[in-house]
Model the fold of this input.
Amino acid sequence: MTSEWQRLIRDVPDFPKPGILFKDITPLLAHPEAWKTAIAELAEPYKKKQIQQVVCVESRGFLVGTAVAALLGAGLVPVRKPGKLPAAKLRAEYALEYGTDSLEIHADAFKPGTRVLIVDDVLATGGTTAAVRDLVGRLGGELVGAAFLIELAFLKGREKVAGLDVQALIKY
Done:
């Protein structure tokens, strides 16, 4: 099925800025059977790990994370860009392959000891995932792993999150 999923990932050159080859998942989202199968396979390694909360990253990560959380019977915790969450929050800054940014999570998103899975669409340089790992740790969560539709392995993002169980369906 991986080749089918890869066929449904569109390359968009020079987005969001020149020199970046963006991996667009919208064709996969539009293909019901491939989308359903991809989400099921992404959730599979975590079905017996008592995941209580899926932490997903704005914005495409919300699409993937929501579906995985539903399959796992877990809650959903959004991690957003600054200024988007209404209540008290924690912030972490990180580097992207094309700049810097920061993310926020509600300070009361879950209780210490909660079993957490990070879900996002793409693992690139690992900066976003490292920032989310930091936020989960600051809240006292027990981080079980991180799951991605796509891994851009040539960017070596796994190195930035060494020690974390990382799963990815499609690798480039």
The longest strand covers residues 142-151. The beta strands are 10-13, 21-24, 53-57, 75-79, 89-96, 99-106, 115-123, 142-151, 166-171. The mean pLDDT is 94. The two ends are 15 Å apart (CA to CA).
